[in-house]
Amino acid sequence: MEVRRTNRFGSRLRIVIETNAARDKAEVLLASLLNAQQAVDRQEPPPFSGRIVSRQSMDQAISSTKRLIASLNQALEMAQTDLRDADLALLDELDD
To answer: CA-CA distances (angstroms) from residue 4 to 34, 47, 79?
Structure first.
């Protein structure tokens, strides 16, 4: 497989920018979920078990979003330190 020359700085910068944007969106989502959870917690509980299910769903969504943010932070760290020229060239090929 031939590895073509790539603009390492441009590819790395694009990855960092796109990953930062995804992380920013995930952080906004997490803030919204936490706000919604607080709003629900301030209300009187309904007289049925639906509140338990919705609380579990909210907790799962919050946990999932926190894991997503952690993964995106890890990807950012890798993009800034661990990507080699061959990795960036392969990513450029996939974009074509």
So the answer is: 46, 65, 19
For residue 71, the enclosing domain spans 8-41+48-95
Q: How many domains does the chain have?
A: 1
Residue 79: Cβ-neighbour burial (10 angstroms; 0-12, 13-18, 19+) = buried
- Token pair, residue 60, equals 């799962």
Cα–Cα dist 92/56, whole Å: 41
pLDDT digit string (tens) for 42-86?
876 655 555 555 788 889 999 999 999 999 999 988 887 777 766
Task: Give counts: helices (H), strands (E), the chain.
Answer: 3, 0
